[in-house]
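BUG-142 | component: ligand-complex export | severity: low

The export step for zinc ion jobs runs without errors, but we want the raw record kept on the ticket for reference. Input record follows.
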Amino acid sequence: MSANKKRCGNCGQTMERQTVGTLHWKDFRNLELLTPLQLLKCTSCGEVGYFAGEVSLIDKAAESTLQTVTTHLIEKILAEHHCSQVELANRLGITETHLSHLKSGRKILGFQTFNFLKTLALGKDAFEKASPSIPLKKLMAG
Ligand SMILES: [Zn+2]
């Protein structure tokens, strides 16, 4: 088999090089890449495959996507809710230092924090509801 073909570890069919826009990466089950990659994909079951030398390429694409989107979401939330980084960090349950590292792209976040950021950026009242000062009893009543 050439360097562009591999057998699928899932179903045994042939994998061929194709444009792949969505990846399983770390705890992200369906990470949509801002820039799709040419990777091996099973012609039958859709399983994505790659050679050992391509791992860093995949990491780079996933990290670059997350950095770009995370910075955008944080800036959007800070501007639209007129809140400070401390307030946003409190809602996310992370330190302000960690938030500032995420905003500058120095650190990559996990799926849970990323999903929470998306919710806060898109939901009109999600930001208010995520306030740590909201009494739990009030949430139980609603
Ligand atoms: Zn397959």
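Assignee comment: Attached the raw record above. Residues 8, 10-11, 13, 42, 44-45, 47 surround zinc ion (CB under 6 Å).
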